[in-house]
Amino acid sequence: MTTVAVKPATMAQALTRAMRDAMASDPTVHVLGEDVGTLGGVFRVTDGLAKEFGEDRCTDTPLAEAGILGAAVGMAMYGLRPVVEMQFDAFAYPAFEQLVSHVAKMRNRTRGAMPLPITVRVPYGGGIGGVEHHSDSSEAYYMATPGLHVVTPATVADAYGLLRAAIASDDPVVVLEPKRLYWSKESWNPEEPAPVEPLGRAVVRRPGRSATLITYGPSLPVCLEAAEAARAEGWDLEVVDLRSLTPFDDETVCASVRRTGRAVVVHESGGFGGPGGEIAARVTERCFHHLEAPVLRVAGFDIPYPPPMLERHHLPGVDRILDAVGRLQWEAEG
Amino acid sequence: MTVLEQRGAYHPSPPPAWQPRTDPAPLLPDAEPHRVLGTDAAESADPALMRRLYAELVRGRRYNAQATALTKQGRLAVYPSSTGQEACEVAAALVLQERDWLFPSYRDTLAAVARGLDPVQALTLLRGDWHTGYDPREHRVAPLSTPLATQLPHAVGLAHAARLKGDDVVALALVGDGGTSEGDFHEALNFAAVWQAPVVFLVQNNGFAISVPLAKQTAAPSLAHKAVGYGMPGRLVDGNDAVAVHQVLTDAVRRAREGGGPTLVEAITYRLDAHTNADDATRYRAADEVDAWRAHDPITLLERELTGRGLLDEAGIEAARADAEAMAADLRARMNQDPALDPMDLFTHVYAEPTPQLREQRDQLRAELAAEREGDSR
Lengths: 334, 378
Fold this sequence. Notes:
The structure holds two protein chains of two kinds.
Chain A: E1 7-10, H1 11-25, E2 29-33, H2 49-53, E3 58-60, H3 65-77, E4 81-85, H4 96-103, H5 106-109, E5 119-124, H6 139-143, E6 149-151, H7 156-168, E7 173-178, E8 185-188, E9 203-206, E10 211-215, H8 220-230, E11 237-241, E12 244-246, H9 250-260, E13 263-270, H10 275-287, E14 296-300, H11 311-314, H12 318-327, H13 330-333
Parallel strand pairs in A: 2-3, 2-4, 4-5, 5-7, 6-7, 10-11, 10-13, 13-14
Antiparallel strand pairs in A: 1-8, 6-12, 9-11
Helix pairs in contact in A: 1-7, 3-4, 8-12, 9-10
Chain B: H1 3-10, H2 47-72, H3 86-94, E1 101-103, H4 109-114, H5 119-122, H6 124-127, H7 136-139, H8 151-164, E2 171-176, H9 183-195, E3 199-205, E4 208-209, E5 212-213, H10 226-230, E6 234-238, H11 242-257, E7 263-268, H12 287-294, H13 298-308, H14 314-335, H15 356-377
Parallel strand pairs in B: 1-2, 2-3, 3-7, 6-7
Antiparallel strand pairs in B: 4-5
Helix pairs in contact in B: 2-3, 2-13, 2-14, 3-11, 8-9
């Protein structure tokens, strides 16, 4: 038996590996987008794919997001599995009509005769010092669209597992890649990647008894840091990583909240009309009698994404999370 | 010194990337639309094809009339008639091989029917029974697209995929004059030309985007001219001349099949009916304009040619009409039956596997239906 050294790998490398393995095992998998070929993507996530699989399998397209996704629809109609890169969150908006009117609905429109196995990769979120239009958190738009699966990895292993599962899915999946975690490293054995799980399973990243932090994607490391810091306050926080926003894992989330009796939802995206409102409502509907306090939200402000020199004030940080945890002592306030 | 002057100074001869890549002249459409009927060219047209086109036009006209009548009876939610445009619809269906694909817009039900689709299945969307009543793969007809021009990039992607797989397949995509203003029209044509995809785009220019006339839609000399900027040929054809449309599309399909890349065809035609039954066309166009187009009706043009050359007599005309009448009677009878709908289907085709959330909602609806049935039986 050979043992492969477990080496540090970045999330970007795991995503690349996921596409490479998918392309190697299934000749119908095609990658397309602006700059994905020769350059390997502006984040280098498609690095080497064009060289290994040829330009027909990893294609530099004209700069046109609706055209990229629209062409992917036709390719999927003919039996291919396109993996589309949208380069940046706010650049995906021109493709929104294709996504909402066709990608999400084709299975439904055709009564199941024509499912579209399309993966849409969207580097998203802030914290990288990008200028405007480069840091949006657009997950609420995708979540509000029936017919789409929406997933977002927060770890290197999940980046591989979720992208493999997305490409293997017979339904369209929007993979929101937290771009500020692209270079985060973990020990990872690419020869034995985590088993490809079905989409829609949340996971408890840190067990705790005092309260649950419900989070995903770029906010997971922040929540884990907050949980460590909370120990000094005598709080033992559980951290749940959703991984999948659609379908939503009520079971894991509610089991945790029933154990702890308190919950805070944490995400970068704005709070008004944001994912946290939906999550708080679901938790309240299902766990009301277990709750010791209202479900709180720690979200980005309800403002257009701020300029990079101010973004640290917008992004939910450890202090803001700890403040919310403090407010969970509802009885004391009552 | 301006930037342009600087650039000129440093680059006396432009690098290759700045040179025009294609000679635009062969791509330009002719000044006049291609016509066959009423010209000498009609003598060399295939009589069998002309008679086939005639029969399909008569059927198509009857189909449009029957569907419009079904709307008035409340059997269809809406019907965007292609009366006056039947030559484009029929020719689009007939130039394709069985393995080719048709990408229709919401007004192109007739093209789908002429391609062989069951008329009732083709009307499913407009009846409100379901969104698409047929399996697109079975007939190689994409779902009728209601958002404008969004089906065009699909046609490009499908044709591209077919070529990657080594299949000899052409995609023909239909769009209206209003659709040429959409961003997806531009992106589709650009992708098609860059990829040299085997696609043909047919613009049915019927003069109006609902109420907005072409002059307020574009400042281009013709819609066919738009092709040149993408590096593909633009062709102009009389959209009421079924033989001419068939010829131009046949050439374009052959060119695509042989690896020559995409073509943009503009067919100049006219929508004799209103946009849909919900529209009042008298608000935006004069009766004499409609009358002038009635005199240039696609059926009249072909009938005159065929009878003038002794290829069709009264009996032939009657036979075509009787065939169309039978189709209409069958359509009427079948459309007057209420479709059997299962409300549980609402959840069946959203995802391959319903999400836990949809399973809950499915259970809720099932309980509501059971309660309804119980109420009925009381």
